[in-house]
Structures are given as C-alpha cells and as structure tokens.
C-alpha cells in the first residue's frame, strides 16, 4: 500500500528534478564529420616511370626548354662552355679530390651499368609478391562475401517454401485427426453392434425356448391322449397297409 | 589561375617580381614551401613503380654542388695559377 503511494508520487518527483545537462549534444558536435567529397581509398595508382632524365643528372625539361631557341645541340654547347669556363677561370679547382671523385664515380657507374637491371628485376619481384599477397587477401575476402551472398539468397528462397512446409504439416495433422475419428467411429459401431447382437440373441433364445417348450407340451398332451384302444387300431391299420404295399411290390417285380 | 597560386615553373620572367612579392616568407610559409617542393620532387622522381638511380643521384649531385660552394673560399687558396 505504501509502495503504491510511492509509485504514484514518482512522476511528480521526477518532474521536479532539474533537466539533464545539454552537454551531450556539444560533445558530439566536436567530433569530425565527414563532409568533404575526398575519400582516401582507392588511392590513385603510382606512375609507372619517373620523370625523364638525361645522362642520369639533367631533367629532360631543361633540354625541351632550350630546344626552340638552340635546337638539339644547345644544352650540350651550354654545358661544354660552362665546364671550360669553370676550369679556365679556376672557379672549379682541380686537386686530389677531383681524382678521388673520378675514380669513385667510374666505379659507381660501372657497378650501376652492370648490376642495375638485375637489382631492378629482384626489387620488382619482391614488389610483385607483396602485391600478389595483398590481392589474394582481397580476392579471398571478395569470394567469401560473394559465397555469403549466395547462401543468403538461398536462405531467402528457402523461406518462400515455408508455406508448403506448413501445408504439409497441416495435412498431416488433419490426416491424424481423421484417422483417429474413424477409429473411434469404428469402435462405437462395434460396441453398438455387440449390444444389439446380444439383444437379438436373447430374443431368439427366448423364442426358441418357448417353441421347444410348446412342442414338448403338445407332444406330451398328444401322447397322453393316445388311449390304448387307439394304439391297437393304428398298429393293425399299419400292418394292413404294409401288406398291401408288399403285394404291390411283389407284383411290380 | 591567379598569380599567387601558380607554381614557380609556370611564372613568366616578367611576372617574377610580382610573384615573389606574393610569397609568404614567415617560418611557416618557408617550411610549407620547402615541404611542397620536396613533395613534388619525391612524387616525380622517387615514388614511382619502376624507378632507378635517377632520384637519388640528382640529390647527391645537388649536395656535391652545395658543399663545393660552401667550401669555395677554402678551394680558392689551392688554385694552380695566380692570374686567369
């Protein structure tokens, strides 16, 4: 009883409380929203080859820049002139470091020219393997998901057959009920027939007994009524009949 | 496009003066310019599928030139001739 009073007072008490703080909405607004069109995947593929470079040091754009004015030999003339100027004015001083640089550079250039393609092929192979592994993972994931889609579709198709299943079950139940009903009907029929047969048997027995009894009584009375005189007369008549018959039989033979 | 947004290679010689005036020479601006320059070099010569020695060798050549120019006063003292 007291608990019911408390429950009735609860809504009023809740309304009396201060409303919950609105900080929840503010917290959500400080998160980053995806409003830009940019997406990080899929990335654009890497370019196949880097920018063109001539002699390994000077970009092709320089040659193209000078081509309209000086033709093909322009940059080479520029380079030669520049080198001669630097050497003759000794802005570039030839000393032991020059010799060292020449030796080192020649060795490096020989190494690159000789082993470059092999190293490049090896690095490409490593890259290919990495890509193949990643692609295999991706393809497996895609195949798994497609198989899941197929399974899902099959399950959806199976759901459509639910009605048939229920119809079959309903038919089964109806058949069971029908069989049970017929069984019981049969039982009722048998029981009723048994009782009726009993009644009929009783009546026939009674009638038979009455008939027997009546026949016996009639016979008894008839036998009682036969006097000895009548017995003698009937016996003599029978003998006469027999004699007549025997005579007729003798004549036929 | 507008002058301030164009990269250096597409600025004509006559407009170079105005282009430099629109540059941002604060530390963040210079850092941003250096970052952009490195990013474009990296994307063009190093971050490719079938790159070669070109990307690094150009960097090394530039480094050689820079270090020679920084030590030029030292090299000047080891000239072979006095008068050129």
UniProtKB/TrEMBL annotation, chain A:
GO cellular component, one term: proton-transporting ATP synthase complex
InterPro entries documented for this protein: ATP_synth_Bsub_B/MI25, ATP_synth_F0_suB
UniProt key word Ion transport: yes
Coiled coil: none
Family annotation (Gene3D superfamilies): 1.20.5.2210
Key word Amino-acid biosynthesis present: no
GO molecular function: proton-transporting ATP synthase activity, rotational mechanism
Subcellular location per the Swiss-Prot or TrEMBL entry: Mitochondrion; Mitochondrion inner membrane
Chief location category: mitochondrion
Keywords linked to the UniProt accession: CF(0), Hydrogen ion transport, Ion transport, Membrane, Mitochondrion, Mitochondrion inner membrane, Transport
Assembly behavior: F-type ATPases have 2 components, CF(1) - the catalytic core - and CF(0) - the membrane proton channel. CF(1) and CF(0) have multiple subunits.
Record family assignment: Belongs to the eukaryotic ATPase B chain family.
Function: Subunit b, of the mitochondrial membrane ATP synthase complex (F(1)F(0) ATP synthase or Complex V) that produces ATP from ADP in the presence of a proton gradient across the membrane which is generated by electron transport complexes of the respiratory chain. ATP synthase complex consist of a soluble F(1) head domain - the catalytic core - and a membrane F(1) domain - the membrane proton channel. These two domains are linked by a central stalk rotating inside the F(1) region and a stationary peripheral stalk.
Protein name, entry field: ATP synthase subunit b
Gene giving rise to this polypeptide: Atp5f1
UniProtKB/TrEMBL annotation, chain B:
Keyword set includes Cell membrane: no
Tagged with keyword tRNA-binding: no
Pfam families: WRW
GO biological process, one term: proton motive force-driven mitochondrial ATP synthesis
GO molecular function, one term: proton-transporting ATP synthase activity, rotational mechanism
Cellular localization per UniProt: Mitochondrion membrane
Residue ranges of the TM segments: 54-72
GO CC terms in record: mitochondrial membrane; proton-transporting ATP synthase complex
Swiss-Prot/TrEMBL keywords: ATP synthesis, CF(0), Hydrogen ion transport, Ion transport, Membrane, Mitochondrion, Transmembrane, Transmembrane helix, Transport
The protein, known as: ATPK synthase
Species of origin: Piprites chloris
